[in-house]
Each structure stands twice: as structure tokens, then as C-alpha cells.
Amino acid sequence: MMPQNDISFHNEHFLFFSCLFFFFVCFIVVDGRWNAWSTWSNCGPDCKHHRRRSCTSPSPSNGGKYCVGRDLMSANCTGGMCRGT
């Protein structure tokens, strides 16, 4: 027979419940994910426009990984959008 105070042999649902009950807090590791890119900015004097995204869908928490990649994208303006200097 299992000892009554040893929770390590119980099923995973009981372990999760025990964690909440005995420790009051459980931490779930959440990796960050990129949100959608913003719309392109207006064409600047350098004939480039930009758009951004952030690692907030969700944000990394409890030791989760930050998003891989860049948060800023730049490109040459096209279609006569360049104002020139």
C-alpha cells in the first residue's frame, strides 16, 4: 500500500491539483510568439519604409524562450512612393 502523504505516485491530475493546493502557485513556462506585422510606414526621405512586430502573443514568461527573428523590417519604397531629397 502507498503511503498517504507521498503524492509522487498519484496520477498527473492529482499532482497538478496538489501543486495548486499545497504550494498555491504553479508556473507554466510560456514561449513567446510574434504578433502580426504592423502596416508599412510612410516612405521616408531615404526611400525606405518600415514595419514592426513584437513578441507579445504571448510574451515569454516563467523562463520561456523569446521569439526568434527580427522585430523590424525595412524595404525600399516602390510604385513612385519615394519622395526624393
UniProtKB/TrEMBL annotation:
* Subcellular location as annotated: Secreted
What the entry lists under InterPro entries is as follows:
Compl_asym_regulator, TSP1_rpt, TSP1_rpt_sf
Record field: transmembrane: 12-30
Keywords in alphabetical order, please. Disulfide bond, Membrane, Receptor, Repeat, Secreted, Signal, Transmembrane, Transmembrane helix
Q: Which PANTHER family match?
A: PROPERDIN
**What is the name of this protein?**
Netrin receptor UNC5C
